[in-house]
TrEMBL record:
The keyword Mitochondrion does not apply. This is Alpha-glucosidase. The lineage of its organism: Bacteria, Bacillati, Bacillota, Clostridia, Halanaerobiales. Residues 26-209 form the Glycoside hydrolase family 31 N-terminal domain. Keywords: Glycosidase, Hydrolase.
């Protein structure tokens, strides 16, 4: 307990608070972004906040001492600091946003008189113990909690508790799972309809209890380290996410092919099998961009090697695949096989880049290769060395790296908490390093690729910490082919998106267990707007390629994979946008409808960007599904039927139908379908225009290099307006620096009651369909007028 506030000093943009028994700091990072930490934290270098992208130089704030209460006023907030370092945040009208809980913890009583239940094998939930770092905040009745990365359960976490300790548990993930692979200690709170964020930047095992042990408070604790967290002001959730990703980093622009269809399997065992899979995609006219090689491509599971017997002339295989338009991604695990003469092992030993026990002896545990040592990713020299190892793979043409088992997972019991790491000269123990192991492995991989390749690195990781989005994309680990897991995928991916992890996806069809035909079909449909679009399945489970079931499944899957390829420019635009705003691709409906309480607990619908509403079928056998449409007017993607929002509708949804709605006033870019991204030179862009008022920014670049950072890109702004007698569509080419401009546009305008179309005053021909009219125009048009009938 800090006891009484004795004194304070303002030092630039931070206030030092001297309590009877503790010193704390409050740092004003921006008017709405406030860091709170205890003195011990001062010299700590965050692994998540590597350089904060705020300009704090000219911040204005006032500090006032009022009867033992310190009051800080910024341009957005009033912050009241009381004894015991209790801190309350108010808006400028003095409405509370978030307040520390002033009483003691008071958990519900777990009544049990003996161990009968445990003896029978029931595992009772454990009580939360008191921890060295604890924060309690008041919960008001209308509070909702989101974020926290890859948790099971629902979109809204209120009433549940979780732990952060990166964990590989292959049993089916259910609602009661407190841990998973990732640790993202960020939450987005909605108090009524006012959003705020809390980011607890501490890498030790931590606990979040969202009013489970007691309705009245939210509890955060960490097993070590010191108090350090950020309060992030809204009131919009969008602003909170923007600020959070200014701190921890925004998802960089990926290479465009990474948005294509990806096919994986543990494992495609041989060169012949890989080639057969690739050829099948082309033969069956199913678009595909990427084939993955899981652990069996390696020689004896030794990382940075490959098996020349199973994969004869690997380089040639990759060249052939490239010829056919496929990219190849290989898995790399952290465990290094203990084997003298194996170069990676020898170098790791020579350089002392391994984890050790307390006496400095290399720490050994078992993973796929048998006994392994583990590289120390906390150490920057080790990271650079590990990164360089990727050169061998890049030289034979590998296009991306898949990091698995980096929680780290181990077969011979977990790594003890006191295993030693070297934080560039300072000792660190496993209990502090665990949750950032995968994060720093991804960083090492990203930087290793970046050093030698001039393309945007593609990394995919299982374990992560806050900020890993700067280096890697994500998948949600070992799900199962269960309907529950398809349902869970949606809130999990939405919460990951809110937590900065925008480029994410699940194993389509489910990893463990056997998929059914219907499940795979619905999973493809639900995933067409997940940035990572990858079918993956476990060894021993039934084949899960789109053609592995009956013809109907193949046809429907193909239809939706092709639909995905049409929307590639829309997805790419969303990622480009996200690089500036931090907003994810897959969004919970409340992100754009924050005052609509019907959206706060919607687990099975999402928005792809702002314009497309997805309501995939995630129930076995369901032929009708209820869809909530928020404010505005929405058009059924398939029938063109217009629906009034703020309304529930029932959509007929046989197996080949994915309920999907477009917001009136949207302009949506589409590509022609291709076998793989880059197969066709896209010099024509299709624009789907849903009449109304609106505009749309479309981004175009080479899709692979960093030339865009030098300004080599084009930016098109399309604007539509409705007048009494006509509709108007204008093109404003905002920026033109990339030389492959579109030579034409194909416009599909969703209104058939049109008499005449004029492009820059010239009358042109158009085709009439059942819901829309179609016409082609040159790339340099500036205005289209559509005269109403
Ligand atoms: O424990 O490399 O989540 O995607 O196929 C299994 C084999 C290890 C776990 C990954 C999964 C991958 C599998 N790996």
């Amino acid at each position: 307990m800090a006891a009484k506030l004795k004194d304070y000093q303002v030092e630039n943009n931070q206030i030092k608070l001297v309590y009877e028994s503790q010193i704390y700091f409050i740092k004003i990072i921006e008017a709405g972004v406030i860091q709170l930490f205890e003195a011990d934290y001062k010299d700590y270098n965050s692994f998540a906040v590597e350089d904060n992208n705020f300009n704090s130089a000219e911040l204005d704030f006032e500090v006032e001492n009022k009867k033992g209460k310190l009051i800080i006023t910024t341009a957005e907030l009033i912050i009241e600091i009381k004894n015991d370092f209790k801190v309350d945040f108010y808006d400028l009208d003095h409405n509370p946003i978030s307040k520390d809980y002033s009483k003691k913890r008071d958990p519900f009583i777990r009544r049990k008189s003996s161990n009968i239940a445990e003896e029978e094998g029931h595992k009772l939930q454990e009580e939360l113990k008191n921890q060295p770092v604890e924060v309690l905040k008041e919960i008001t009745a209308e509070e909702k909690f989101y974020g926290l990365g890859d948790r099971t359960g629902h979109l809204n976490k209120k009433g549940y508790s979780y732990q952060l300790w990166n964990t590989d548990d292959p049993s089916p993930h259910v609602e009661s799972f407190e841990v998973l692979y990732k640790s993202i200690p960020f939450i987005l709170g909605l108090k009524g309809d006012y959003a705020y964020g809390l980011f607890f930047d501490n890498t030790f095992r931590s606990y979040f209890d969202f009013g489970k042990e007691n309705d009245d408070y939210f509890y955060y604790a960490a097993e070590g380290g010191s108090l350090n967290y950020y309060f992030i002001n809204g009131p919009s959730a969008k602003k909170v996410i923007d600020s959070y990703t200014k701190l921890t980093g925004k998802t960089p622009l990926p290479q465009k092919w990474t948005l294509g269809n990806q096919q994986s399997r543990w494992s495609y065992h041989s060169r012949e099998r890989v080639e057969e899979i690739a050829d099948n995609f082309r033969k069956k006219d199913i678009p595909c961009d990427v084939i993955y090689l899981d652990i069996d491509y390696m020689d004896d599971y030794k990382v940075f090697t490959w098996d020349d017997n199973k994969f004869k002339n690997m380089k040639e295989m990759i060249e052939n695949l490239h010829q056919k338009g496929f990219k190849v991604v290989t898995i790399i695990d952290p465990g290094v096989k203990k084997e003298k003469g194996y170069q990676v092992y020898d170098q790791c030993l020579e350089n002392g880049f391994y984890l050790t026990d307390q006496d400095g002896i290399p720490y050994v545990n078992e993973v796929w290769p048998g006994e392994c040592i583990f590289p120390d990713f906390i150490n920057s020299d080790c990271r650079a060395w590990w990164g360089n190892n990727h050169q061998k793979l890049l030289e034979i043409g590998i296009d991306g790296i898949w990091n698995d088992m980096n929680e780290p997972a181990s077969f011979n019991g977990p790594l003890p908490e006191d295993v030693r790491f070297d934080n560039d000269g300072q000792k660190m123990e496993h209990k502090e390093a665990h949750n950032i192991y995968g994060h720093l492995m991804s960083k090492s991989t990203y930087e290793g690729i970046n050093k030698v390749s001039n393309k945007r690195p593609f990394v995919i990781t299982r374990a992560s910490y806050a900020g890993t989005q700067k280096y890697s994309t994500f998948w949600t680990g070992d799900n199962h082919s269960l309907w529950q897991h398809l349902r869970m995928a949606l809130p999990m991916l939405m919460n990951m998106g809110l937590s900065g992890l925008s480029f994410s996806g699940t194993d389509i069809g489910g990893f463990g267990s056997d998929a059914t035909a219907e499940l795979l079909t619905r999973w493809y449909q639900a995933s067409i707007f997940t940035p990572l679009f990858r079918n993956h399945s476990s060894i021993g489970s039934r084949d899960q390629e789109p053609w592995a079931f009956k013809q109907e499944v193949e046809e429907i899957s193909k239809k939706y994979i092709k639909l995905r390829y049409k929307f590639i420019p829309y997805l790419y635009d969303l990622l480009w946008q996200g690089k500036k705003t931090g907003l994810p691709v897959m969004r919970p409906l409340f992100l754009h409808n924050q005052s609509d309480s019907n959206t706060y607990n919607l687990n099975d619908q999402f928005l792809a960007g702002e314009n497309i509403l997805m309501a995939p079928v995630v129930q076995q056998g369901q032929k009708y599904r209820k869809v909530y449409l928020p404010d505005g007017k929405w058009l059924d993607y398939w029938t063109g039927e217009e629906h009034q929002g703020n309304n529930y509708i029932l959509k007929e949804s046989p197996l080949d139908t994915l309920p999907m709605y477009i917001k009136k006033g949207s302009i949506i870019p589409n590509y022609e379908v291709q076998n793989y991204i880059g197969e066709k030179k896209m010099d024509e862009l299709k624009l789907k225009i849903y009449p109304g008022e609106g505009d749309y920014l479309h981004y175009q670049d080479d899709g692979q290099s960093f030339a865009y950072r030098e300004g080599e890109f084009n930016l098109y702004k399309f604007i539509q307006e409705e007048n009494d007698q006509s509709y108007e569509v204008t093109l404003d080419l905002k920026k033109q620096r990339y030389d492959e401009l579109y030579s034409s546009f194909k416009i599909e305008f969703f209104n058939t009651k049109i008499d005449e179309v004029r492009v820059d005053t010239q009358k042109i021909d158009f085709e009439k369909g059942s819901q829309s009219i179609l016409f082609n125009i040159d790339g340099d048009f500036s205005k289209v007028e559509l005269i109403k009938a």
